Amino acid sequence: MIVLNSSDGATFEVEESVAVQSQTIKHMIEDNCADTSIPLPNVNGVTLARVLEYIKKHAEAKDDEEGLKSFDAEFVKVDQASLFEIILAANYLDIKGLLDLTCQTVADQIKDLTVEEVRAIFNIMNDFTPEEEAKLRNDHAWAFE
Amino acid sequence: MEQSRYLPEGIIHRILRFLGATDQARVCVLSKDWLHAWQTCPALTFSDQPLRCLFQQALGRGDEECEKYCRQGRLKFQDHVKRALLNYKGEHIQELTLDIYHIGDEDSAATLDKLLEIAMEKGVKQLKLLIHTYHCIKNSAEYYYVLPISILRAHSLTDLEIERCRFPACNQLFNGGKFLVFNNIKSLSLTCVYIEDEKFQLLLSACPLIHNLDVKLCEGLTRIKVVNLPRLKKLDMRHEIRKSLIFAVDAPSLESLSISYFGRTWSVLQLPASQNLRELMLFNTYITNAFFNDWTSLFPRLEILGLKHCHGFQNINLRSHSLKHIRFSFTAESLVELDAPNIIDMKIRVSAETMQKVSFKGALPRQCVSDLCIIPCYWSSIDVSWFMKLNELLSNLNPSKISLRICCASPLSKHASFEGIPTFDAHPVDIEHLDLTESRADLPRYLTFLDGLFWACHPKHFVLHWLTPLAYLPVKIFFYKKFITDQRSRVFSNWTHTLSFWQHYLKKTEIHFYDTTGKKCGQQDYLHWQKVSKIILHLDWSASSNLWNAKIAEPLKRKSSSVKNSGYSG
Q1: Is the pLDDT of residue B413 over 80?
Q2: Which residues of A touch B (CB under 8 A)?
């Protein structure tokens, strides 16, 4: 069993065979940095719990394609802020499947929204001057029709 | 609102990969970070698809205004691509996809040449060049875009996928006696590319590192020899069915071979023994009975075999100890005998009209999972002998875990000629899963059909997809009667135990209802029936189990004798 410590002091136990889905953790174990527990200063407790839920499910039900698909679909039904936290955690922990799943989800959302809506929902600050933005839109005009 | 945490550029690159060309261009406007991410993104896609549709409609209508608008739009698009490539800030572009319309004139070709030159300077590794032409006439190859030398010379290129292009003249492929082309290509995919035999062979000889080759619908090819490619692992060929073709392959490292649409006129010069071949897929291809001779020595490591809609054979006798996965789909009348003791899973599709016979030498392993799908074309072929053939097919698949799916293309015809189920005893096969799709069926007729099915097999799990909208209540009532209160066992008194037994095996039933758009809008599970079934199980099991076991004791003999005795002529 491996013990993981989140940034806000929460501890989680998980089996090594499950934890190594994270390349970061896998390398830490291989390099013997994991004596008592592994500190993960970039991931908070709530997010770490969710990530562990994902990797546990994917370790258990490895061959059940249908089941995993529906699990994944439900898993990403979270608010924006949490989704971004999970993306960052998956990136830090280097879990390819989770990273692809969450990025695909963001991409799917972007497809259905206008630029203003994307900015609003993803909290992206528009740092272009009106002239710069107008010029860009003009250059990419064919995409906005 | 809280500022959400900053997304690092690497993640924005990942997100951009999942976006199409239009969305990639749109998100540049979000913020400077996103613009910069796009300018350094290793995977870029450019597509003028929305303009294409508009342009084709305009040309079709003769709408000059719209045409002009599209032409201007295309010029703007080309400028945009050029600028994007020139201003690329990353180290080099890993993957570039250009999904572009090419009119077929010189200007258009020159612009495209320039774009590709710039792209190759940026060190593109994987290029997808998908050209669309308006001239959908037979000799449209004349209008195909001729690949520029810049692509052929590019050292960085390892993966190339092209559609609707042609290769330049042979003399341009050489420079001072040495090949100009493709030295580092590992993966080559040609779709609707015009290339003659000689050029094709030259091309292949110039790619010693190639491990993946796809050749689809390429005009100009009459003879394909895939030889001297020591690293080739995957070969996918699709030809035009009416054209003749001579095909030879000798690639010792080949692991996966897929052949589609090789019509009656193809002849195989060589499909030699291969130690490494793991996967063989034949689709809509002409093969003879002799094709399957001697496979244990020819392909000792073959694990996956797919035979879909192939024709020309009547009788397959196949022996292979390495075979693990089978994907068969039959349309013509045929008889298949397999000796494959290590099979793990099978997907077999037969047509209801012909009910091809598939049999196995020796019993299948228990862990094997079989998926049998029956596609009826015309319900008029369903009669008593049909159920017998179904029963035979299922018993051949015993004792693997069988799932049976029957999909109705058309409603159960009033002219379906079965009057009822066979009047002699059955040996229904235990199957895991029975999945039916039905629309607009006449309910009482369907009842008889179900009786026939339950005569042929005992499913544990029954699922029905009811496609007729607005018929929920009658259907629900109907099936409630069938599953819970069916008293039909009293009618066929000479074998009551057989009919009532199907209810014992059934553990779960589901009926899914769909609305007019095909979306699922309801489900009926006969859950409380399960409790009832348990009681029935309890009561009848000890009473008639002995009788049931006695019946199973001599299955084959009884079956044949009962056919004779019943006087049934089917």
Answers
A1: no
A2: 80-81, 84-85, 87-88, 91, 99-100, 103-104, 106-108, 110-111, 115, 118-119, 122-128, 133, 136-137, 139-145
Q: Give residue B549's pLDDT band: very low, low, confident or very high (50, 70, 90).
A: very low
Place of tokens 């997100």: B15
Q: What is the pTM of this model?
A: 0.76
- Tell me: ipTM over 0.90: yes
- Residue B311 carries which DSSP code? B
CB of B520 less than 8 A from some CB of A: no
Distance CA B377, CA B440 (A): 15
Nearest Cα neighbor of B214 from B185, B179, B181, B174 is B185
Count the helices and strands in chain A (H runs, E runs). Answer: 8, 3
Cα–Cα distance for residue pair B199/B173, rounded to 1 Å: 9
Give the mean pLDDT of B436-442: 70
Distance CA B201, CA B226 (A): 8
* Sheet of strand B315-319, all strands in order from the earlier edge strand to the far edge: B315-319, B335-339, B357-360
Q: Do the bridges between strand A2-5 and strand A11-14 make them parallel or antiparallel, or are there none, so unpaired?
A: antiparallel
Q: Which of B93, B76, B120, B77 is nearest to B38 (CA)?
A: B93
- What span, in angstroms and rounded, lies between the C-alpha atoms of B109 and B393? 58
Owner of token pair 């005893």: B425
Burial zone of B553 (CB within 10 Å; 0-12 exposed, 13-18 middle, 19+ buried):
exposed
Secondary structure (3-state) at B381: helix
- Give the residues across from B463 on adjacent strands: B435, B510
List the end-to-end C-alpha distance of chain B, in Å, as a whole number: 76
Beta carbons within 8 Å of B415's beta carbon, 6+ residues apart: B379, B380
User: 3-state class of B369 per DSSP?
Assistant: strand
Question: In this complex, do B15 and A91 lie within 8 Å of one another by their Cβ atoms?
Answer: no
B495: distance to nearest CA of chain A, Å?
A: 40
**Structure confidence by residue, pLDDT tens digits, A94-117:** 999 999 999 999 999 998 888 889
Name the phi and psi angles at B163, rounded to 5: -135, 135
Cα distance from B517 to chain A (closest Cα, Å)?
Answer: 22
Structure tokens at B315: 């009788």
B559 in helix, strand or coil?
A: helix
- Rounded distance, CA B215 to CA B237, Å? 5
Within 13 Å, how many C-alpha atoms sit on residue B114's CB side?
A: 11
Given a contact cutoff of 8 angstroms between Cβ atoms, the answer to whether B245 and B224 are in contact is: yes
Which residues neighbour B430 within 8 Å (Cβ) at sequence distance 6 or greater? B398, B402, B457, B458, B460, B505
- Cα distance between residue B97 and residue B126, in whole Å: 8
DSSP B13-75: HHHHHTS-HHHHHHHTTT-HHHHHHHHH-SEEEEE-HHHHHHHHHHHHHT-HHHHHHHHHHHH
Please name the member of A103, A122, A125 whose beta carbon is closest to the beta carbon of B11: A103
Q: Residue B210: which residues within 8 A CB-CB, separation 6 or more?
A: B185, B186, B187, B188, B204, B229, B231, B232
Q: Is B438 helix (H, G, I), strand (E, B) or coil?
A: strand
Phi, psi of B357, deg, nearest 5:
-100, 130
pLDDT digits (tens, 9 = 90+) for B443-453: 667 777 777 78
**What's the Cα-to-Cα distance from B295 to each of B56, B110, B327, rounded to whole Å?**
51, 52, 17
Element (H, E) at B375: strand B369-375
Q: Two tokens at B8?
A: 């690092």
Q: Residue B406 and residue B239: Cα distance in Å, rounded?
A: 32
Q: What is the pLDDT of residue B485?
A: 59
